[in-house]
Amino acid sequence: MNELQEQMRQKLVALAPVASITNSIFRRICKSFGADYVVSELVSSEALTRESLRSFALARFTQAERPIAVQIFGGNPERMARAADLVNEMQPDAIDINVGCPARKVVRNAGGSDLLRDLPRLARVVRAVVERAAVPVSVKIRAGWDESSINAVEAARLVEAEGAQWITVHPRTRAQGFSGRARWEIIRDVKQAVSIPVVGNGDISQAHDALRMFAETQCDAVMIGRGSFGYPWIFAQTKALLAGRDPVIPTARERVDLALRNLSMELEECDAEPRFIIRRMRKHLAWYMTGLPGSKELRPEVFQAETYAQVERVLQKFLQLEEAAGSVAPSACEKREEDTSFASMSCDPASLEWASGGDGHAGT
Ligand SMILES: Cc1cc2nc3c(=O)[nH]c(=O)nc-3n(C[C@H](O)[C@H](O)[C@H](O)COP(=O)(O)O)c2cc1C
Fold first, then answer.
1. Closest by CA position to 225, among listed 10, 12, 11, 15
2. How far is Cα 123 from Cα 126, in angstroms, rounded to an integer?
3. Residue ranges of the chain assigned to CATH 3.20.20.70
4. How many other CB atoms are there within 10 angstroms of residue 161's CB atom?
5. DSSP track, 106-140
6. pLDDT tens digits, residue range 44-62?
7. Is the domain covering 3-248 a CATH 3.20.20.70 domain?
8. Would the pTM count as exceeding 0.70?
9. Residue 347 known to be catalytic
């Protein structure tokens, strides 16, 4: 048994891969708040093996992100094996195979969640990657293709037999996309069916949910996606609760400071023009402010900011409002009141079909 697989059994708290959101900068931020393990955004095996620079950029990570898995997708076993060769050179701690992406452009080429409709192909893909990978291979699956074909347990047994070292289960069907409820009982069923570690994922919107997932499913580790957007404190809070400590609630000042730090990191590290970076970052900035007094009212202003100075000015208003409101901290980690409904945290579903063309990347 390898070291990372062993760690997976220690109630590890992981950051989920989320295309176009959990980039290297956000992963580093989450690590600094206690995330134990992170996964890159999905990278197309087709694009990687065609030497797409964008794909290599997506797969790139820094030492601070370790342990990290680079996630690849595709339905062609030989291509996936060649992609594994290329990923080996980057020396990640694991290679994760995406078997959940619902985007049309991905499933059309037999990748992502389409593999759940063709288990023999899934077996060949996992076998091919395991044979070539220099590091442990893991697989991230959904519940099944649709309501009438829930097969997560069968798929999990199969990927275990093919040598995957752990499995992540996001228990929605491909047909559900990101709507409806993640059916945690499917995580429990998978956990009972396999002996490799099982990472539970889906609908952990606050730290208490993570504890509930551990208790209800007996999963070995949990993975958090949307619940971390603008709120990496969720990792520290989850770990505090797991250790029997009270979670610390960030102040408005801390949230504003982190939003600005995240934006500064983007401006320093990305090649694009600042105004494009700021436009791309507006949703993140709004997520950082979600639940603070004025978050709804000031949202349009956040979305109009074009420069760092303008962003700073809007965010300062949150501090003034917080002061005026008497700095009442939200109770426990009931983090972000009603305007943080999980739906509003989701990315635009349109992004799910985004950008698979050219470089072959797609949100999942
Ligand atoms: C916009 C978007 C992009 C995503 N990109 C990926 C991806 O690149 N790879 C992957 O395995 N899952 C991806 N996911 C799925 C998440 O990793 C996760 O399984 C899902 O959001 C459920 O977890 P959550 O409720 O904690 O967000 C994506 C989800 C969203 C909303």
1. 15
2. 5
3. 3-248
4. 12
5. HHTTT-GGGGGG-HHHHHHHHHHHHHH-SS-EEEE
6. 999 999 999 999 999 999 9
7. yes
8. yes
9. no
